[in-house]
């Protein structure tokens, strides 16, 4: 089931790039990011209430709060940089570079989460890197 949701995530991420590029025409990238974020925020809270998950707020630990806040800051920084890059270049060049996040995430998971780096994941990371360079040039 995780693969289905991961695949949907990829489809929606692709749609995000195309829709954002069209929607940003003549709009400051920071303003565009802020507007998009308001929509994402509203959608997230609608899902919290639809699934009756709001009661869990009180049981979130201080450590979880810290890391969720840091994750939110990283997401915000990523979106601001992504929208700025989209405004400056073609989607077909920005998107492959953005997907280097797969390689960076893999390396960070090995360093910070002690996940195993297998020959298969290393080969995949190298192929993603080579593909990124080929598509971005």
From TrEMBL:
The chain crosses the membrane at residues 30-53, 65-85, 97-113. Keywords: Membrane, Plasmid, Transmembrane, Transmembrane helix. One of its GO terms (cellular component) is membrane. Residues 2-136 form the EamA domain. Belongs to the EamA transporter family. This is Membrane protein. It comes from Pusillibacter faecalis. The lineage of its organism: Bacteria, Bacillati, Bacillota, Clostridia, Eubacteriales.
